[in-house]
Amino acid sequence: MAFETWTANRRAIEALDVRKGDHVLDVGCGPGRSLAALTVLVGNGRVVGLDPSPLMVNVALRRNRQLVGSGRIEVTIGAIERLPFPDGTFDRALSVHVLYFWPDLTAAFHELRRVLKPGARISLLFRSKSNPAAVRSFPPDIYRFATRVEVEAALDVSGFTVCSDNTEAEPVLLAAQARA
User: Of residues 56 and 2, which shows the higher confidence score?
Assistant: First the structure.
């Protein structure tokens, strides 16, 4: 799957507008392919990968073992409902093809907002409910698809302002900024 989504991950990383010194969280990092690319962008900043799957965390740790060993990357098990980080920890957050697994978008974005600094930027890439082919391709008991409008509404009530989105229909790419 890491190879299948790499192009999407690169687009979402670019939308983050990462700066040297940033602390970046990859929510649902999966096999951790984006972590090394983010490390290059943050320079002396910090990159943290989070995934609820112990298997994916182990794959990400193995893939990035040298960067983990040098303290440049941290990979941890965790869920969006209870992020294991203090308030205001991160400058950027990335989530690619992950929000399908969040039971409550608004609660997830509230928790994400909690661990972000004011003015922090998030980048989300996802297939929407408006894409019937995508919806039919995935088991509905596992994947919860939302429309772009639903995601934007959940972001808004959770303290984010959408600052850019793609004009392509699918997958949807949204960047949003955490309000103060």
Answer: 56
- Of the two residues 134 and 27, the one the predictor is more confident about is 27
Provide the CATH topology of domain 2-178: Rossmann fold (3.40.50)
Q: Kindly give the residue spans of alpha helices, DSSP state H, lying in the chain.
A: 2-16, 33-42, 54-63, 65-69, 105-115, 132-137, 148-157
Dihedral angle, C-alpha 52, 158, 92, 134, nearest 10 °: 60
pLDDT of residue 4: 55
Cβ 117 vs Cβ 178: under 8 Å: yes
Q: Which tokens hold the place of 176?
A: 């949003």
Query: What's the DSSP call for residue 37?
Result: H
**pTM score above 0.90:** yes
Please give the backbone phi and psi of residue 102, each rounded to the nearest 5 degrees, phi first.
-85, 120
Q: What residue segments make up the domains of the chain, in order of their start?
A: 2-178
Count Cβ atoms below 10 Å from residue 157 Cβ, excluding itself. Answer: 11
Give 119-144 pLDDT, tens digit per residue.
999 999 999 988 887 778 888 888 99
